[in-house]
Amino acid sequence: MSPPLQGFNFAVLDDPDFKEDSVREEIIAPLLWALGFASFGAAQIKRSVALEHPFVSIGSVKRKINIIPDYLLCVDRRAVCALDAKTPTEDVIDPDHLSQAYSYAVHRDVRANHYALCNGRRFVLFRTADMSADPAFQFELKDIASRWAEIKENLSPSAG
Question: What is the C-alpha separation between 128 and 81, in angstroms, rounded?
Answer without folding.
Answer: 9
